[in-house]
Task: structure prediction
Amino acid sequence: MTTLIWDGAYDADSTRRVIETNDRAALIWCENATVLTGTDWRYLKVPQGELTRLQATEFADLPVALAP
Result:
């Protein structure tokens, strides 16, 4: 039996790779959903700090609020 012990530390490189992998997976999912449904699916990543700052009440407000 293997016992896993976590020391509470995070490896920044590993965390970055996981985030990049998840972002890529979301983009691929959107591409596949677009092909399969004929509806345009797009990935919008909203950093937590921005989401908190915006205090958007409707999902539709996010792309407008985050536009450059």
